[in-house]
Structure formats: structure tokens, C-alpha cells
Amino acid sequence: MTDDTADVIRVHAVVTGLVQGVGFRYCTVDQARRIGLGGWVRNRFDGSVEVEAQGSRADVARLLSWLKVGPQWARVEHVDVREIPAERGGRGSAFRVQPDR
């Protein structure tokens, strides 16, 4: 028997560049839901986009790779990522857009 929660991670990422006003949040939600991740995305008042995502290490890595490129209209300059404690319940809740911060 394997422990499915052993492979579950949660990351916090801040994406900088031309990432607001280009559909970045909604494309991120679409990507994360396709992959099967829980978490959220929101704009920050400094012009960056903030993301928390939870799922298997491989699935989170897929989203992080996508964040480094973003949708076609975005111009990603940098993605700062740190691992944070996973929430109970494995993958977490469905991926969603949070209010701006």
C-alpha cells in the first residue's frame, strides 16, 4: 500500500513581467484545472500575479513550467517559487481566481 499524500506538494509563486491585462489569471485557472491541481491565482497591486498550487510533484512542475511562459500575450520576466506546507486533503480545493491583493 502506498501513501498518495506523500507525493503531494504545495507551492507559492509570484510571476512578474507583463502578466496583468493579458488573461494570465484565467489561462492559469484553465491550465491548473486541466492538470488537476487545487489552489488559486490573483493579481497583486504591484503588477505581478500570485499563484498557490497543490498536487503531485510532477503535476505542480507542469504548471510551473507553463507559468514561465504564460498565455501568448504575456511577457513573463521571472517566476519566484517556494514550497509551502500542503493543505490537508491532498490536492486541495478546485483551482480558482482569488480577489486582488
UniProtKB/TrEMBL annotation:
The keyword ATP-binding does not apply. Residues 10-99 form the Acylphosphatase-like domain. Keywords: Hydrolase. The keyword Hydrolase applies. Its EC number is 3.6.1.7. The active site is at residues 25, 43. It holds the Pfam family Acylphosphatase. It comes from the Bacteria. It catalyses: an acyl phosphate + H2O = a carboxylate + phosphate + H(+). Transmembrane segments: none annotated. It is an enzyme of class 3 (hydrolase). PANTHER family: ACYLPHOSPHATASE (PTHR47268:SF4). Belongs to the acylphosphatase family. This is Acylphosphatase. It comes from Bifidobacterium miconis.
